[in-house]
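Chain X:
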Amino acid sequence: MNYVYILHSKQDSNLYVGCTNNLMRRVREHNNKKVYATEDRIPLELVFYEAFTNKNDVFAREQWFKSGFGRRHMQKMLSNTIKV
């Protein structure tokens, strides 16, 4: 399986979107400062993920979440989970 995921930084309340084929390993890497983009934002909490069987679909979904419309949708979708 391939996953698109959203992490919430408890330090600065920002969201991070990524994709992987091993979700739990990737979240551990983020929280162990092995990912440059998030190393100064830990601790990070997994707040959302979606599973895809096709790698191209997961990449397309990640790019959509990173677009302006996708980011607004993501914040609205998670408004009860986090305060952004």
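Chain Y:
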Amino acid sequence: MAARTRKSTQRERLIDGLVEVANRHGYAGASVSAVIAEAGVSRPTYYEYFADREDCFAATIREVHGELRKAVKAALAEAGPDTALAAAVTVVTEFAGEQPARARFLFGESMSGGQAALDARDEGIAVIAGDIARAERAADPETPLCDVDPRIAIGSAYRLIATRLRRGEAAISILRGDLLDWLASYAVPASRRRWQKLAPGDVPPRSPYVPQVGPMHQMPKLLPPGRPRIPEAEVAENHRARILYAAARLAEEKGYLATTIADITRLARIDGRVFYRLFADKQEAFAAVHEMGFQLVMDVTAKAFFAEEGWPLRSWEAGRALTQLLQENPLIARVGFVEAYAVGPGAVQRIEDSHTAFMFFLQEGLMHSPSSDPPSRVAMEATISAVFEVIYLQARSPGNPQVAAMLPQIAHIWLSPFLGATEADDFIDARTGAPLEPPGRGR
């Protein structure tokens, strides 16, 4: 009995140590040496429980998710079907307030890990979402329920809270009211819910604002052998473009963490010395890919937005251009919405800057809100976080991501807090030409 208790305590110390180290340094800094030093256990003890760093990281995500799920299930047992989602989101905010270190790790730093970590993060959210969906099945057909996939609602709350925990904010519990008001803006009778699963719709006609050939469509041509008779600046730009393409391609195939500089130079077919003349390290190269993608996303989205009259139509066209751009440039989608969290604090800051940039497109919606109580800033941040979660899940999906087919889902998330769920869906039906039949009860 004493031996089992000691082993349990050692594992708990390693879990706690991983949380502390990852919150300070991300996945990259959560080495075996750093974790055992923080936990105060030996290296052999570490390997009694975990095969390697990735195994420890993913196991810690599952452990903390298990703690959160236990609290969510207890709250759901006391809640009615009409308040199940609100009860779960309340627990999420309370967990962040009471255990900020574990919440920061689970909600934010979990995305800096490799594929196993991301799988553990997404699976944990899906399990909690399943608990919510089962609790809601008992609702009367006319009971108002939030018409958003619970995975997106929970994932958005994670993102919103993680941003604040990174900034060191302590008053997380004050987000609860704004988050619940935001979710209430999607409420419709249970029998009329349409968006409970991320089912792809029809892809609209191609946006004229999406470039015919994106920057990551193919590797730039090799320069001829020997000393090229072209300006040095053009040679450097060719090499740089080849490196960026290779980095993006490898991010999609292997992930940022598993990619080495040798991998990049091999695929780019350049010498390692050329790489180091242009970039200090792998992180800088990937940051350049992310920055290029971010600039393209903002340029295309803004052009489509300002080409139309009226905020709902502007939003639709901006969303059409954005989703089709990412569909046609999956390398940019993968780096920008999945791998960027592993690249480091600079890339995470650019992601948060992109939230602020997208807030600009939402501001005009305040003038279209029929309510005397328009969406709060927190609600608008949650809206953007939810859109990012949809794109992230598509970018991670196996095969060909269906980002463009998610436009109706994204439009519903984007428009409903301002227009109301019914009017937003009427607008979407008018743009797509055919209303989506509500699913049967229990979806």
